[in-house]
Amino acid sequence: MDEDEARERILATAERLYYERGYGAVGMDALRTEAGVSLRRLYGLFPSKEDIVAAVLARRRVEWEDALAAKVDLAGEDRRARMLAVFDHLAEWFVDPTFRGCAFLRAWGELSGTDEQVAQIVRDHKAAFQRTMVELVGEDVAGGEQLAAQLSLLAEGAQSTAAIAGEPSAAAHARAAAEVLVDHALAA
What we know:
- The chain is an all-alpha fold.
- The protein contains nine helices and no strands.
- Residues 27-46 bind DNA.
């Protein structure tokens, strides 16, 4: 196995294990065993667990942004449909049997008090999502930044509710509230 293959195997395994079990519950030995690499190779590619966590979160961010963009693109050019597509994306994600909530919020909850790098990665991800919502709303909508913030909060709250309550309908409830906000803003 070459270095790229080993790196991919480690990251895919770490992403799965951290998401299933939590960041703190998965040690380097368990990761090495599951990934099928030597401890020497693991530490050669990732000198610390913090390096793996950072790489996993970077990977997760790309996956999230790509999936969200694909769903928004399917909505076409209609601004209302594009804003609401965020909630359609959440609805599909919440029924996935592997859904365990937002990996970034989980990392924040477990590691942000002891790892400033993780805290910054999570802040950056959430700020990027906020910028995405601002772009979807557009600059010409009255109160657009406020609407973007409200839609972001609905999306974030739906993720937490769906994960904690095991209730995928949180996406539909958030979407219904978003429709009211969006329709009001577009009518103004």
